[in-house]
Design brief:
Layout (H helix, E strand, L loop, with lengths): L16 H12 L1 H39 L6 E9 L5 E5 L6 E9 L5 E3 L14 E5 L2 E5 L5 H11 L8 E9 L2 E8 L9 E5 L2 H4 L14 E3 L4 E5 L2 E5 L3 E6 L2 E5 L7 E8 L1 H25 L15 H15 L17 E3 L5 E3 L1 H10 L1 H8 L1 E6 L3 E6 L6 E9 L5 E3 L14 E7 L5 E6 L5 H15 L3 E6 L2 E6 L7 E7 L13 E4 L4 E4 L2 E6 L2 E4 L8 E5 L5 E10 L1 H13 L5 H65 L1
Antiparallel strand pairs: 1-15, 2-14, 3-11, 3-15, 4-8, 4-10, 5-6, 5-9, 7-8, 11-12, 13-14, 16-17, 18-32, 19-31, 20-28, 20-32, 21-25, 22-23, 22-26, 24-25, 26-27, 28-29, 29-30, 30-31
Helix pairs in contact: 1-11, 2-5, 2-10, 2-11, 5-6, 6-10
């Protein structure tokens, strides 16, 4: 089948109307092309913002170490064998340790006790004995069918949970028909393993105890022993060879008990680690500066950088150097700027670290160095504590005034004789902690004294983890909420009452505490229990103080000091905070704009496709009409020619 000539653009009319339609549509689509170019630019911005976030995060992480002071907290310990042939201990130190030198000698290492029963039977034959015995105070019940293996399992079951016996049991097979129960303390120390037959003679039968209930000498494989050692010639005793409470911040591990051997430990601040932290900050900062410079500089040719002209770049480029050049309030006069500690800005905006200056400050001016870089919260006044400060809080000192103290909820019975009478009907007291919603109940029975009720109720409260104290106030029962504030309260309910002659309460009662009221910096603050939080829009906004004193009026002041590390971290928080930070806001803005551009492009393309179809239909109709006219012209010409020939 041949294709009609009219299906080819312009074959009849003599011009290519399809190219004409394409040109018309292309011209009309210029806005969509501009929008697509903007989309491409936004895609590049998103990629650049991802790089920007990564670089900012590196600086933030490094500045956090400066803000918290962990950059300066690392400690080092060196050991020297002062006498003897080997070290008698090893040591590690954490950030709470103080510099110093310590001489350690060990007389005796701590040992865990180990006991073994006598032989005479295999592990699976019934022992034929029954009764009860205790292992470190916990009872084991023995039946006639028990074997060494089942006794082992029963003992090991007790060495679990919240109150383990700290004794592990195994069965040692010496030979045919000769198996022995072995008990090993999982903790070292002279207290060892305590055993007792409480009924029957199982432990005697197994060879652990003699007829007087004492441990058989033959059963003792290893005697439990405490560690005996000296630090700077001061005698100490511990149940373990790992000693964490002798030197603050230092963990000693005793390893030998050579007579006359002495190991000396020198504890010092670790300057290498501090310099490394400072260098990490310098390196991260300089990488960020290089990125900011590249994004903020347009070349003479080609497209500008993805973030060129963005306020995100200008803000960081201007504010970061300012924070590092600014003197820190409250710092020592000769160590009030980071340059005094060896951290200097160069002409091109990068940082350098003078290790000599830094080492001097680190070794001789530790406190001043921390003030220069860290965030410091201090409080003056008995019972006053500076709890926290928001990122928006400004450095300075603010007075704290208390107009009324926080109180605890309390409830007390009324008219109780001191001896309960349930009237022959079971009564129940239920106490509910309003804050947590946890309730505990105890039975109240005839003959219970106030002391009995206090003991039973306090036991139930403690078991449930409820922070309410039960006590006696004469004959009365007094309940006191341990927490302070209006959200902390007590409610009680007594069921089964009304038929006895002496009862605690005749109906439900409840009580709540009150919140502290006062001001921070002379302006409004909101109390929550013993906390005061500065209200939004006030000078104390973002400050939280806790007051546990008993006086009112001006109770003291709180001071926030912001060192260079704290300032930098706070600035970067403004960029990096999830959801509300500058970067997330910019990304959200780009996303919204992108959705709008996509919608605009799709809508315009839909309209243009309809217009294209309409134009093509019009030109096709024209071609059809021209073809028809040509056919008519041809027919007429043929008629005229035919008529002429006939004449």
């Amino acid at each position: 089948m041949t294709t009609p000539l009219s299906s080819f653009s312009g074959v009849i009319s003599g011009f290519n109307y399809r190219d004409l339609v394409d040109a018309i549509i292309a011209q009309a689509r210029v806005p969509a092309t501009r929008w697509e170019n903007e989309q491409s630019a936004n895609t590049a911005r998103v990629t650049a913002l991802g790089t920007y976030r990564s670089l900012l995060t590196q600086v933030q992480t490094a500045s956090k170490a400066l803000r918290t002071g962990t950059a300066f907290d690392a400690m080092s310990i060196t050991s020297t064998i002062s006498s003897g042939t080997r070290a008698v201990a090893t040591a590690t130190a954490d950030s709470t340790a103080s510099a110093g030198s310590y001489r350690v000698a060990v007389t005796q290492l701590a040992r865990a006790e180990k006991l073994a029963g006598s032989g005479g039977t295999d592990a699976v034959t019934a022992l034929g004995t029954s009764g009860d015995f205790t292992v470190n105070g916990q009872s084991v019940t023995v039946t006639a069918t028990d074997t060494l293996n089942t006794l082992r399992d029963k003992i090991n079951t007790l060495n679990s949970g919240t109150t383990p016996t700290n004794v592990s049991a195994t069965v040692l097979t010496v030979g045919l028909g000769d198996a022995r129960l072995v008990l090993t303390s999982t903790q070292s120390g002279a207290s060892g393993i305590t055993l007792a037959d409480t009924s029957g003679t199982t432990l005697q039968t197994l060879g652990f105890l003699d007829g007087m209930g004492a441990k058989q000498t033959a059963a003792i494989l290893v005697s439990g022993a405490d560690a005996l050692f000296t630090i700077d010639d001061i005698a100490l005793t511990r149940t373990s060879n790992v000693v964490t409470d002798a030197i603050a911040g230092v963990t000693l591990t005793l390893t030998g008990d050579d007579v006359g051997a002495v190991t000396t430990f020198n504890v010092e601040r670790y300057a290498d680690a501090a310099r490394s932290s400072m260098q990490q900050f310098v390196d991260a900062y300089n990488e960020l500066v290089a990125f900011l410079k590249a994004q903020g500089t347009a070349s003479g040719t080609g497209a500008p950088p993805a973030l060129y002209g963005q306020s995100l770049i200008r803000t960081a480029r201007s504010q970061l150097p300012s924070l590092l050049l600014e003197a820190v309030g409250g710092a020592a006069a000769d160590l009030a700027t980071v340059s005094a500690a060896g951290l200097s800005l160069t002409r091109d905006g990068t940082l350098t670290l003078d290790t000599t200056l830094f080492n001097t400050a680190f070794t001789t001016r530790q406190s001043d160095l921390r003030t220069l870089f860290t965030e410091q919260r201090t409080a003056t006044g008995a019972g006053l504590e500076f709890v926290s400060s928001a990122a928006s809080a400004n450095a300075g000192t603010l007075a704290v005034d208390v107009t009324s103290l926080a109180t605890q909820a309390s409830l007390v019975s009324s008219g109780f004789s001191g001896i309960y009478d349930d009237g022959g009907t079971a009564d129940q007291l239920t106490v509910t902690d309003s804050g947590s919603g946890v309730a505990v109940s105890i039975a109240l029975t005839t003959g219970m004294t106030t002391g009995d009720i206090v003991t039973a109720l306090q036991s139930a409260l403690d078991a449930a983890g409820v922070a309410i104290t039960a006590s006696a106030a004469g004959n009365e029962l007094l309940l006191t909420q341990q927490a302070f504030g209006s959200t902390e309260g007590i409610s009680i309910d007594v069921t089964g009452t009304g038929d006895g002659s002496s009862e605690l309460w005749t109906g439900p009662l409840s009580a709540s505490g009150t919140d502290m009221t006062g001001t921070i910096g002379g302006e409004a603050a909101t109390g929550t229990g013993q906390l005061l939080v500065g209200d939004t829009g006030t000078i104390g906004a973002g400050f939280t103080a806790r007051y546990t004193g008993v006086a009112t009026g001006t109770v003291g002041s709180i001071t926030l000091g912001l060192g260079a590390g704290a300032r930098v971290e706070r600035l970067l928080d403004q960029f990096l905070n999830s959801g509300g930070g500058f970067l997330d806001k910019k990304l959200a803005e780009i996303s919204i704009r992108g959705e709008r551009l996509t919608s605009q492009v799709n809508a315009l393309d839909s309209r243009l496709e309809r217009r294209r179809a309409a134009l093509l239909r019009s030109f096709f109709a024209m071609e059809t009409a021209v073809a028809r006219l040509q056919q008519q012209s041809t027919s007429l010409q043929s008629f005229i020619t035919s008529s002429s020939n006939k004449n």
